[in-house]
Design goal:
By secondary structure, the chain is an alpha+beta fold. The protein folds into 2 domains: 2-122 and 290-294, Rossmann fold; 131-288, Tumour Suppressor Smad4, CATH 2.60.200.40. The chain contains 10 helices and 15 strands. Strands 5, 6, 7, 8, 9, 12, 13, 14 and 15 form a 9-stranded antiparallel beta sheet that branches. Strands 2-1-3-4 form a 4-stranded parallel beta sheet, sandwiched between helices. Helix 8 packs across helix 9. It starts with a strand and ends in a 6-residue tail after the last strand. Mean pLDDT is 84; it is low at 158-166.
Length: 300
């Protein structure tokens, strides 16, 4: 039997990982794995555990929300030869699990760990010292994911993000930035930006691109310029909802690397968690860096 380390976040979602722990372990055992379980005790515990113990197992599996997945992969990025990764989603939105075609039910996701297809995925590097899996963002609404209390996430799920997001509408802040990539350069005032490698953000599909490859070495980038009137803001929101191809305030493009400078420190969110306040940011795509067990996903 191969050695498998299962990292479980017991507070994610509605404690789904904790409540389904025995069926998950039973499914993995029957799939031929010798399972050792680690229950996270605090923030960043998944990252530290993956870094310290991931190199001694044949398969690393994490169960929790997107934040738990992000922590686990950040820990794996410290390893010279990281093992293959399995994911059992148990969070409120599970954006990246949706991109990977992983089932929502815990036991079905555990079966996917046993029978899933291994695919390589790109990993984002942020300012040369941190990693993200599926999104790095700033500006309007990005603080919602880490300011929404866990209890409210557990109680309301995706609705929690909507409720907290509406509260921030009256406090939209603008940032003067210069954004540069190999093929794009703009210096403007922006209210929002995100660099993604996912088909879903905050439970919404298609915000950046309709066809997303997780292993093509490119991020999907979305930038929203600052509107000057309430009508312009309404038009921006309308274009996001209807997924219009063109809006003069909404910029979408692909990039493998971004350099962003701002006139002041800007709060960033990485995979739903606070990533720090930065005035100068370098984002790089690390192509096909981690191999993960997916469901039915189209490869590039």
């Amino acid at each position: 039997m191969g050695k498998l380390l299962l990292i479980v976040n017991p507070t994610a979602g509605k404690a789904k990982a904790r409540d389904n722990l025995l069926p998950i372990v039973d499914t993995l055992n029957k799939g031929g794995w010798q399972v050792e379980v680690h229950v996270t005790q605090s923030r960043l515990d998944a990252m530290e555990t993956a870094a310290a113990r991931g190199g001694s197992v044949d398969l690393l599996v994490c169960s929790g929300g997107d934040g738990t997945l992000s922590e686990t992969i950040s820990g794996m990025m410290r390893l010279e030869n990281p093992p293959r990764l399995g994911y059992i989603p148990a969070g409120s939105t599970n954006d990246f699990a949706s991109s990977l075609g992983i089932p929502r039910k815990a036991v079905d996701a555990a079966r996917n760990v046993v029978n899933g297809t291994p695919i390589p995925i790109d990993i984002g590097q942020f300012c040369g010292r941190r990693n993200f899996v599926y999104v790095a963002g700033f500006g309007a609404f990005t603080e919602v994911s880490y300011m929404t209390p866990q209890e409210k996430k557990n109680l309301l799920g995706h609705q929690a993000y909507m409720i907290e997001g509406m509260k921030s509408l009256a406090n939209i802040k603008s940032y003067h930035m210069k954004v540069e990539s190999d093929e794009f350069s703009m210096e403007e005032d922006f209210i929002f930006g995100m660099v993604t490698n996912t088909t879903s953000v905050g439970g919404f599909k298609g915000l950046v691109a309709r066809n997303v490859a997780l292993d093509d070495g490119l991020f999907e980038v979305l930038l929203i310029r600052t509107p000057t009137t309430a009508m312009e803001l309404t038009n921006i929101l309308s274009s996001m909802i209807t997924k219009e191809e063109y809006n003069e305030y909404v910029h979408r493009f692909l990039a493998s690397r971004l350099h962003i400078t701002c006139s002041e420190p800007v709060d960033w969110v990485l995979d739903g968690e606070f990533g720090g306040a930065e005035q100068e940011v370098e984002i790089e795509n690390l192509t096909k860096r981690i191999e993960i067990l997916s469901g039915n996903v189209k490869k590039s």
